[in-house]
Design goal:
alpha/beta; VC0802-like; globular; binds aspartic acid; binds magnesium ion; single chain; about 425 residues; Carbamate kinase
Length: about 425
């Protein structure tokens, strides 16, 4: 079997759903598990419903109406016959959502969040499943809340692999069948809906592939595949045809929004290839992430990580920075949950590029000031060039003024200071 995943952008309107049917038609004779996200920006909109509801504000009603109207418009476009059963299915889910919101707010925000937000995927899959059936593409609609079992860590639920594998294998028995499954959602032992973290549908696709020993996973996107840099940031980007699992994890680590490592890991374990392809050009092969050589073509990869702060820590008495200081500094980072992306030491100071977190960074600075001198600058940007060549590096560095630069045989990283408040 193959696992396909279609994200929110691919089902943002009626034509998106039609396009999915066209793609599935190219795979008529294959067993498919089709994982679908909520339509367009529905998850964001449902998050707003949760906030209104949880704070006792009546606006949840108008927000929910907006979401309903958006889906009804897609329905009317796809199913001119308003007696079609799909209208009832979709209206029923909105009825359930209204019921939830009319009852007394539960005290656990994250539980309420998952209960409400999970409906985005229920609705989108109802629509996709009905449309595919009408297009002659028989399929079975599955409820991920009965199959993807998790713990109770609402909003960031962790998968119970053994249980999930048993349930998925029971539900998906026909290797040449066609199944529709919601991304992003599951349930705990009490069948309370849970979610796997925002953008979690890719992960669901990987879970299904792992549990079913699928041949491959294909993520259909609005880009041709994985590029060697974000085209919104870098010029002359090229498509990467192949990336090894380890290389993909490395790229993600440095901040590339390739594919989340969480999605890669189960696939890497079983050697199941992951394809990233364009739903706009479904005949092109896109990018394949699999075991093998790290990159094809072997080109430098450029990664920008914004929202950095540059923090220098030095001893108050100009003593050398030694292990004892460093362990104290890192323990403080750990205490405030601050991620260090780059570190550089000199005799009496250490400099760090850290994720700027407006809540925790001020607490971190207060704590460090008790024992060290610090300078601090917000608005820094960290660039990483992986697999650089001397020529590529020269070109990349032209006109830049790095505050820090670090080079290994494989990567070059620089931090540039942009405008932003600083503290000395
Ligand atoms: N609909 C969910 C989200 O927007 C999951 C996903 O899109 O992958 O976060
Ligand atoms: Mg989404």
């Amino acid at each position: 079997m193959k696992v396909f995943k279609f994200g929110g952008a691919s089902v943002k309107d009626a034509n998106g759903v039609r396009n999915i049917a066209e793609i599935i038609k190219l795979y008529q004779n294959e067993g498919l598990v089709i994982v679908v996200s909520a339509m367009g920006k529905t998850t964001n909109a449902l998050e707003e419903v949760v906030q209104h509801y949880f704070n006792g504000r009546e606006q949840w009603k108008s927000k929910l109406d907006e979401i309903r109207n958006y889906h009804l418009e897609i329905l009317r476009n796809l199913f001119p016959n308003n007696q079609h059963i799909v209208y009832e299915e979709v209206e029923h889910t909105f009825y359930q959502l209204r019921l939830i919101c009319q009852t007394q707010a539960e005290s656990d925000y994250n539980l309420v969040y998952d209960r409400i937000v999970s409906y985005g995927e229920i609705i989108s899959t109802r629509i996709v499943s009905a449309y595919l059936s009408d297009a002659g593409l028989d399929n079975l609609w599955l409820d991920a809340r009965k199959l993807i079992k998790t713990d109770q860590n609402f909003r960031f639920a962790r998968v119970n692999w053994n249980f999930t594998e048993i349930l998925l294998r029971q539900a998906i028995r026909n290797p040449s069948g066609r199944y529709i499954l919601q991304g992003f959602i599951g349930s705990d032992d009490n069948y309370h809906a849970t979610t796997l973290g925002r953008e979690g549908s890719d992960y669901t696709a990987a879970i299904a592939a792992y549990c079913l020993n699928a041949d491959s996973v294909t993520i259909w996107k609005d880009v041709p595949g994985v590029l060697n840099g974000d085209p919104k940031v870098f010029d002359n980007t090229v498509l990467l045809n192949k990336i090894s699992f380890s290389e993909a994890i490395e790229l993600a680590y440095y901040g590339a929004s390739v594919i989340h490592p969480k999605t890669i890991q189960p696939l890497k374990q079983k050697g199941i290839p992951l394809m990233v392809r364009s739903f706009l050009n479904p005949t092109q092969s896109g990018t394949t992430i699999e075991n093998g050589s790290s990159l094809e073509p072997m080109v430098p990869c450029y990664i920008q990580k914004s929202n950095q702060a540059l923090l220098s820590v030095s001893t108050t008495d100009l003593a050398f920075i030694v292990e004892e200081h460093l362990s104290q500094i890192y323990a403080t980072f750990h205490r405030y949950g601050i991620r260090v992306n780059l570190a550089q030491n000199s005799a009496t100071s250490s400099t760090f590029s850290i994720n700027h977190d407006p809540v925790n960074v001020p607490l971190l600075l207060e704590a460090l000031k008790k024992n060290f001198l610090i300078t601090y600058h917000e608005g820094a940007v960290l660039y990483t060039v992986r697999h650089y060549t001397p020529a590529a590096l020269e070109e990349f560095l032209r006109g830049r003024n790095p505050a820090i630069r670090q080079t290994t045989p494989i990567i070059c990283q620089i931090v540039e200071l942009k405008t932003g408040p600083s503290l000395n």
